[in-house]
Structure prediction request, 313 residues.
Amino acid sequence: MHQPTLLAQSDAGDTNYGTAKKYRGKLLYSLEYNAALCELLIGIKQADSLKAMDLGKSSDPYVRVYLLPEKIKTCETKVFKHTLNPVFNEQFTFPIAKSSLLNSTVVMQVYDFNRFTKHDIIGEIRMQLASVDWNHVIEEWQDLAEPAKFEEENLGEICFSLRYVPTAGKLTVVILEAKNLKSMDIRGSSDPYVKVQLALDKRKWKKKKTSVKKKTLNPYYNESFTFDVSFEQIQRVNLVISVWDHDTMTANDAIGKIFLGCDASGNQLKHWADMLSNPRRPVAQWHSLLSAQQVNSTLNLKKKVPLAGKLPL
Prediction:
């Protein structure tokens, strides 16, 4: 692939070896703004010499991309196993007006994927878009920096397993546990429960929920839910997992949310694909929760599915 020669930054990165500032690797990305469509195109090309995060002196890298300050959409690349030099070649589109563009910052974070523990961040790039010359496509290498500690609002993580049996048309979701949930009460705790919702063709379809766990930010559930979903329907389904704080006096508050299925990306799409490629076998994975606003705007669900008589097969 074309590798621009205008920015040779690897020498600068080499000076970080053996110093207090650890070298984290570098990322090749592209930026392009389509003024006619009011769209920002962000290309994640490849990474090089990433820091090894696993015991085997390797990593399972993927890249998360979003814009600040709005952060209404987060995109993730595919996960590449056992490599420090992944070639992603993925492009993401963010709708944004030119006026908002000049006040925005693009954040590109490289993570190391772990199925059963929190994903470790390897490093990140933050670029203020007001400083970019939009008259031509930007394509450049940049060294990864230490991740910023201030802006990330951690909503918590959730672990659940998925199992699909095509012959029986059964989808089983087991909500296992959550940890480090954001506290929603004045006393610094929450009363969390999990809502499991299916959407078919972007329409709300079926939903179930767990029991409420009192005064905890690290609830353990191990509760199983089975849905009838035919093999034809599983290709058109999205699974929405949301964690809520139960409140007896006022409306329940959403702590965080994620969705998996045909319209998902990144880790969520990987978990869904792993389930489909391992029929009849439960596949468990941890996921970081996103804000409800972010998931809702990405998924954009319509009203409920029509009654059974009018339901497409």
User: Anything to note?
Assistant: The radius of gyration is 21 Å. The chain is about 10% helix and 40% strand. The helical segments are 10-14, 98-101, 231-234, 266-277, 292-299.
